[in-house]
Every structure is written in C-alpha cells, then in structure tokens.
Specification:
3-keto-steroid reductase/17-beta-hydroxysteroid dehydrogenase 7; binds NADP nicotinamide-adenine-dinucleotide phosphate; oxidoreductase; EC 1.1.1.270; two-stranded antiparallel sheet; alpha/beta; single chain; NAD(P)-bd_dom_sf
Amino acid sequence: MRKVVLVTGASSGIGLALCKRLLAEDDELHLCLACRNMCKAEAVRADLLASHPTAEVTTVQVDVSNLQSVFRASKELKQIFERLRLLWLVSNAQDNPLKKLKKSHTFVFSLRKVLHMFSTAEGLLTQEDKITGDGLQEVFETNVFGHFILFRELESLLCHSDHPSRLIWTSSRNARKSNFSLEDFQHCKGHEPYSSSKYATDLLSVALNRNFSQQGLYSSVVCPGTVLTNLTYGILPPFTWTLLMPFIWLLRFFAHAFTLTPYNGTEALVWLFHQKPESLNPLTKYMSATTGFGNNYVIPQKMDLDEDTAEKFYQSLLELEKHIRATVQKSDDQS
Ligand SMILES: NC(=O)c1ccc[n+]([C@@H]2O[C@H](COP(=O)([O-])OP(=O)(O)OC[C@H]3O[C@@H](n4cnc5c(N)ncnc54)[C@H](OP(=O)(O)O)[C@@H]3O)[C@@H](O)[C@H]2O)c1
C-alpha cells in the first residue's frame, strides 16, 4: 500500500520543496497537496507528475484561516482516504504577516547580535494581524487553530495503534516563550503574533504526543532555518536579498541557520521521514542547518517549554473548538 503524505502550503516555498524531495526519496508515494489556490495546486501537481509519473498526487482546496473551508476539505479528505492510511500530515501553510522592517531599528554591530537577528528575525520586524471571518486572530488561526481543527477532523484516519502516523509542524527559531501567554493565546494584545503562534505549535505538538502517542499518532516540530521564499521576500524584496548575499554567505560560516534554499530548509523534515517516530524525543525541535560549505544536517534542540503549560494550552484549544462547533451548529440549524 502506498504511503500517504498530506502537506498544507504545498504550492510554494518549503512545502513545495518538501513534496519534491519526498518524491525523489520514494516515487511510489501518494502526495496530497492541500492548497488554498487550486490553480497553483494543479500546476504543482502536473509538474510533480511529469518528473515522477509513478507517484499519485491529489489536490484538495483548503484555506486554513477559514474554518468552513477546513471542515469542507476534511470531509473531502475523509472520502478520498477512506481506505488508505494517512501516514503524515505536514502542517506548513502560513500566511505572510511579516510586512516590514521596524522603522526605528538601530543596528548594533556585535556579530552575535547580528547573527541572532538575521537567523530568528527577532527585533527586525513589525508584524500585522487581523480578525478573520471566524472572529479569531488571523495568524493564530492560520498557523495553529486551522491546522488543529484539520487534525481533529482527520483524527480517525491518523490514529491507528498498529501502524504509527505522524503530524509535523513547521515551526521556527522565532518561537519564543516571552511572546506567548496562556491567557492571551491568540495574541490579541501583543505585537509578535508570528512568534507567539510558533511557540503555540511547539506546545501543541508536545500535548498531542502526550495525548495521542498511545493511539499511534506522533507529533514533531521542525525549523527550516532562514530560507528565501515568499515569506522572506515579504520582509525584503528579492534584489535586497541578492545584495545581502555575500554578507549572508559569510555569516553562514558562523551560523548554520542560514539554510537559504527551500531544498536545504526541508532537511529536518526529510530526516524525520526516515526516523521511527517512537524513537524521537517529543520535547525536541529538529532544526535544518547548512554549513558554510553548503552541507546540510539536522540539529536537535530541546524546546524551552514545560508539559504542564502544553497540556493547559491543549485544553484551551479544546474549549475553543467546542465553542466554534456550537456556533457552526447553531448557524446550520438556522439556515
Ligand atoms: N522561510 C523561512 O525563512 C521560514 C523560517 C522559519 C519558519 N518558516 C515556516 O515555514 C513554513 C512555510 O513557509 P515558506 O517560507 O515556505 O513560505 P511561503 O513560500 O510563503 O509558503 C507558504 C505557503 O502557505 C500557503 N498558505 C498561506 N496562507 C494559507 C491559508 N490561509 N490556507 C492555506 N494555505 C495557505 C501559501 O499558499 P499560496 O501559494 O496560496 O500563497 C504557500 O503555499 C511556514 O510555516 C513558515 O512559518 C519559514
């Protein structure tokens, strides 16, 4: 039976590079591209099938910042994969909240600070967030809650104690405890929604492992490093990155977080593909890294979190889910 891998945000950047690398490893794979833009998804599908004709590639439309869309896509996925076992769900999609450089930023010429700043974006950016049609913070819904609901809807496909399945979250080095609060987990009041949402995915991954590993579902977190994609081109235009490139190549001898290409950025994801999920530490984040000479490797790093907070956050998400489902039910009853 073919292995099935579902990737959100597969139309560009790291998600697309992951699909290509996974097919290069196993061209019998069944890839499911979960994308919000079907024109892009179909173009990617045609491209992947042209280079890997023995693979099976399906597409499904989903906008993870719209819960109706997530429910509709889940229904479609349950029909498609009724008899197949979904092995991997890679939660990768994210909108681009990183709009501009902080205007008041003053550069401090300490190599350590510059390396840290460029590899985590900490202190470099202002971020924008807004309320979605579901009444949730957009960055939180896109990066965390939309994917959480997708997982909850597909739970029956993923949880089989006889054959383990995987859930992988594309997190970031930018996930910081100081930017997250259990009382304001949607980050309505703060100015770092991206960092908060990535810390939330780290917590959620730990809680999901604790609650579902007995049922054969294992969750892991990766960081792709700093990769030039639409996300980073939203911070600085491509020509600025090109101008900065000699400096970045030099930095790469000191900080291996500058993976730069989507291919390099998927190193940790592809590495995870080859590991037995039971052997992984749920409290570890797996970071893609590239040396100054261009060699890729994976750095395991203990996450700065505790299991108690992770469980409390998970319970808060379950509460929010209950509330959302009741609202959806009420509006269905009325229509
Ligand atoms: N690039 C980096 O340096 C970096 C560093 C750390 C972590 N990451 C993480 O890596 C992941 C991939 O980012 P990337 O750099 O590859 O960015 P990207 O090239 O902008 O790709 C983002 C993908 O998400 C999709 N997407 C956006 N909003 C969506 C929505 N509401 N519903 C469904 N799909 C949606 C996009 O689809 P469209 O094609 O329709 O826009 C696109 O396929 C993200 O989780 C990001 O936070 C990236």
